[in-house]
Amino acid sequence: MTTQERLLYIIERLAKEPCSTKKLTQEIFETTDKNKQRLVQMDISLLKNHFKDKMVTLSKQHKFIELPYFIKNITTNDGIKMKELIEFMMVFDNKMLSLFEKEEPLLIKKLRDDIKSIYLIHEPPLEILNSVFLEDIKRAIKGRRYVTLSYKSNMFETYTDVQIHRIIYASGNWYIAIHDSTWDKKYNLLRINFIKSLKVESKTFHRDIEIERAIDNFQSLFSKPDAEPFEVIVEVSSKIMRHFKHKKHLKSQKIIEESKRGLRISYEVTDPLVIVPLIKQWMPYIVVISPKSIQELLCKDVEFFLKKQQGLLHDKKTI
Questions:
Q1: What is the enclosing helix (H) or strand (E) of 60?
Q2: Longest CA span, the chain
Q3: Considering Cα of 56, then 58, then 62, then 68, what sign does the dihedral take?
Q4: Which CATH number fits domain 134-216: 2.60.120, 1.10.10, 2.30.30, 1.10.3470?
């Protein structure tokens, strides 16, 4: 076998499946002689130098990759942004990589190993979507088609001829925002994984700007899209202000004043439960400036908590 024939054989062989230098040597020369292995290794090095973006080696296994061009970029120095995308997928939605893993398991394994050595995900940041209706949901949203669906949460419900306006990710779970023309409210949220059946109807509906605006203003599962928003102003201690300067805890968060004492922040909410859990999370380093109703609500909750806690201090049987 000439050098040219040997190189062509290696290319064709590695395009089919991963293979070690030793195995290639056995197939080409019918021996695993060390000198012959060095010769094959020189061929592989030559191919690697020529096909920099097409060849990968992991655990002594060589493989030619034939992925789409934009995915192939992750193996090149120019593919930094694509590497960041793949890294994001691995950290936040590992399942997505299965789209490429079947075709190029060696490459994806290498990427997985690289990410595993960098990140530790304490808990899955995304709910796994097990719904078989996801594509139908997307089709209904894009085509503004009515749907009929059955839903099981605490009880079994059926929704006939409803509109799906958006897929929403909130508090670690996936929802759809639906609307019925007989409702006074702009939308209702349903967990996608709790949908038991779904049929996309042929009839369509027109775009509703008010509903879309209400969904765009979504801040929390406690948001009330039909309620008039009101302002809540809080004062954040300098001890924790960095956590609010570098992150918006709610979409409406707006810093209105900064001093040595800390921050004054404004929020626009439609229900106290949108803001109260956030305030409780950062107590005692956050206080409510206004409105009085939120102040009173928090004081009642704190008083109730203290009464219960003091009872436990004096009587361990108190619940």
A1: none
A2: 91
A3: negative
A4: 2.30.30
Q: Which of 169, 188, 177 is nearest to 127 (CA)?
A: 169
Give Rg (Cα) of the chain. Answer: 29
Q: Which candidate, 30, 24, 29, 23, places its Cα nearest to that of 11?
A: 24
For residue 119, the surrounding DSSP H or E stretch is none
The strand pairing partners of 264, in sequence order, are 235, 257
Percentage above 70 pLDDT, the chain: 81
Architecture of domain 3-64: Orthogonal Bundle (1.10)
pLDDT in tens, 14-39: 888 889 999 999 999 989 999 999 99
Which tokens sit at 315? 């009587």
Q: Which helix (H) or strand (E) holds 234?
A: strand 230-237
The pTM of this model reads 0.62
CA 274 to CA 17: how far, in whole Å? 54
Under DSSP, the state recorded for 17 is S
If DSSP codes are grouped into helix, strand and coil, which group holds residue 132?
A: coil
Given pLDDT bands bounded at 50, 70 and 90, which one contains residue 174?
very high
- Region of 19 (left: φ > 0; alpha: ψ -120 to 50; beta: rest) is beta
Instruction: Report whether 258 contacts 314 (CB < 8 A).
Output: no
Residues 6+ apart with CB under 8 A from 183: none
pLDDT in tens, 154-166: 889 899 999 999 9
